[in-house]
Every structure is written in C-alpha cells, then in structure tokens.
Amino acid sequence: MKSEIIFYQLFEANSSTYTYIIADRHSKEAAVIDPVLDTVDRDLKLIDELGLQLLYIFDTHIHADHITGAGEIRKRTKAKTVVSKNADVACIDISVEEGQEFLLGNKRIQVIATPGHTDTCVSYFFEGMVFTGDALLIRGCGRTDFQQGSSAKLYESVHEKLFKLPEDTIVYPAHDYRGQTASTIGLEKKFNPRLGASKNKEEFIKIMSELKLENPKKIHEAVPANLACGGSHNSRKLQSRMVDGIPEITCEEVFTQLPHGLAQAVKLIDVRQPGEFNNEYGHIAGAKLVTLGPELTHFLEKEGSPQDEIVFICRSGGRSGAATAESLRLGYSSVMNMVGGMIRWSELGYPVERD
User: Fold this and answer.
1) Domain 237-347 class?
2) 10 Å Cβ neighbour count for 25?
3) Residue 145: CB partners within 8 Å, gap ≥ 6?
4) What is the pLDDT of residues 74-126, one digit of tens each?
5) Could you tell me where in the chain the CATH 3.40.250.10 domains are found?
6) DSSP string over 251-312
C-alpha cells in the first residue's frame, strides 16, 4: 500500500535528472536513487526533515551526464553505496546483480539487471514502482553507443524483464526532457516509439544505429568522477584487468575514463613506427610516440618513472602488449595495454589526430 511508504521525486535541471527518495513509513528506513552532487544539500535536508534513516544510495548506472552525489552522501550519512557489479568501482560498498533484494523495514527493493544503455545499468523495483535509470525512459530509452552499450541487450532487458512486470507498474526514469514525470509499463508497451510492442529487435537496432548523437557535454568529467563514487578523478587509478599476466584496458574504457586534460596524470605511449603515427588510423590526442624496441627501453629507463601510470597503444594491441610486458620487467606497476589498438579505436569512431 502506498500509504505505508514515503516517496519523493526530485529534479536537477542542468542534467534533467530525477532523484528519488523512498522509505518505509513505519521504520523510517530510507534509500535515495540517482542523487546528483549539485543537489546533495537539498536531498539531505529533506531526509533530515522527514526524520528518515538513510540506509542505501542506489545508482542505476555509471552516469555520463552528471556527477553522482553518492560519495558525498555516504561521507555525510554513512549510508552504503550500491552499483551494478559490472561497474568495477573500487570505492563502492555493495555491488549488485539480478535478483538481489534490500529491505526498508519490511518493504523489499528488488534489483533487475537491465544492461544495454551501458553495461552497468540496473533497475530497482519497489512497491509497484520501477526505477529504470536510462534503460526505459518515458516514450524513449537511453542511447547505446558508449560505455559498452548494446542495442540488442537493451531491447532484451526491456522486453524480457521490464515489460514482464505488471502493466500498472509505475515507471520512474532517471531523466526526462519533456516535462513528464512518470509512466506505466502498460503505456510504454503500447506507446514507446522505440521499444513498444510493435517494434522487433532488428527495427530497434536500426533506430538506435541511426541516431548519430553527440556525446554528453560532461562525459569526460562525469564518467571518471562517477567511477570514483563522485570524487575527483585525479585521486583514482585507471581500472584494468589481467589477461595472461598483462594488465589490459579496452578502448572504450580509455575513452570514457580519460577526460581532457588528464594527459599529465596518465601517459599515453604509442609504440608504433613513426610512419604509422599519422597513417589512416592517426593517433590519440596527447599520445607520445616512443617506438617499441631500444627506443622504448631507453625511455622507460632514463625518462620515465616506475610510478608512472601508462597506457600503451599500437595498431592492434600486439606491440603495445609487448611494451607493457617490458615496462613490467623494468619495475613499472601502473601500466596497461589498450587492447584492439588504433584499429578498434577507429572502428568506434573516437577522435584521432594527424600531425
């Protein structure tokens, strides 16, 4: 029963973001969903006025258009931060996956994994309401062309999970740009122009491939900060994974985790031949050309520091893998190979330079 819960929908105008406060009316245990750093004071003031005990801070995904308020709220309330396990965020308290549940009093919040807009997207179902992030918007959906997005996965998330919820379930998205505040599963199944019942997966994929959207204005600031729970991106390391003893990072992760101006903190070292640096693939802005072999070894021994954080780059990822191995041999600890190299970077349509 809605009379047994407390619910507030709040709005941040610069990014058109909705923040939600939900609570059990009897126990006063509460959660906040998708807080924005700019409005943390407002949200905490309301929580205090309502006499709520904030237990959880949920983010529906790693946002690219605003900086989350999760870290700041955790610091000021000791509530636990919650993000998808796919986010690979070291500073998070709880990493969630499909089917996990949280209690506010005796009211359950159920996690629904809804990847597609990004691979970190989850929705939260609570008392006849579903908080869908950017997976399902009112008469729309989030884009799928960055942060490991996938149109096919988004279609499946919506049709196989969200559209299986009762049709009177109220849909509360992370954003709206037309002044609408809520919808229902039934209405979106019927009227959503991208994902409605009349659209099949192939049609949806075609629609999304033809959008040609510009990147969010704050992507180079927001994504790195949100990977640090809303803190400064300069205080964290790039996240890599070990493959056959070599730390690796994808082109997508390099693009989204490196904001403009961070070249001083993270070095991009291109180990190709000079003639390749400006060929059809070009090079990444800020990258330094240091050819694999004696030139690179000399650079690492004489000019670099074992404390440097370096991303090695080449045409396809082979030579940069060798460069990473060489740097590890020389005592470097924060180095990684950009898998796929400039071929993959170019396939993704990311910007390049040619001198």
Assistant:
1) alpha beta
2) 18
3) 208, 211, 213
4) 989 989 999 999 887 766 889 999 999 999 999 999 999 999 999 999 999 99
5) 237-347
6) HHHHHHH--TT-TTTEEEEE-S-HHHHTSTT-B-TT-EE--TTHHHHHIIIII--TT-EEEE
For the whole model, what pTM was predicted? 0.66
Query: What contacts 287, CB < 8 A, 6 or more positions away?
Result: 268, 269, 270, 313
In the chain, CATH 3.60.15.10 sits at 2-209
* Helix ranges restricted to H, 123-270: 151-160, 185-191, 201-209, 219-226, 251-257
Cα(353)–Cα(237) distance, rounded to whole angstroms? 25
Query: Domain 2-209: what homologous superfamily?
Result: Ribonuclease Z/Hydroxyacylglutathione hydrolase-like (3.60.15.10)
Crossing angle, helix 201-209 and helix 151-160, to 10 degrees? 140
Q: Which helix (H) or strand (E) is 320 found in, with range?
A: helix 318-329
Task: Give dist(CA 122, CA 101) in Å, integer.
Answer: 13
- Edge to edge, the sheet with strand 183-184 lists 101-104, 107-113, 122-126, 129-133, 170-173, 183-184
CA angle 180, 189, 68 (to 5 degrees): 45
Compute CA distances 115 → 1, 97, 160, 182, 197, whole Å.
30, 11, 12, 21, 19
As to burial, measured by CB atoms within 10 angstroms (0-12 exposed, 13-18 middle, 19+ buried), residue 231 is: buried
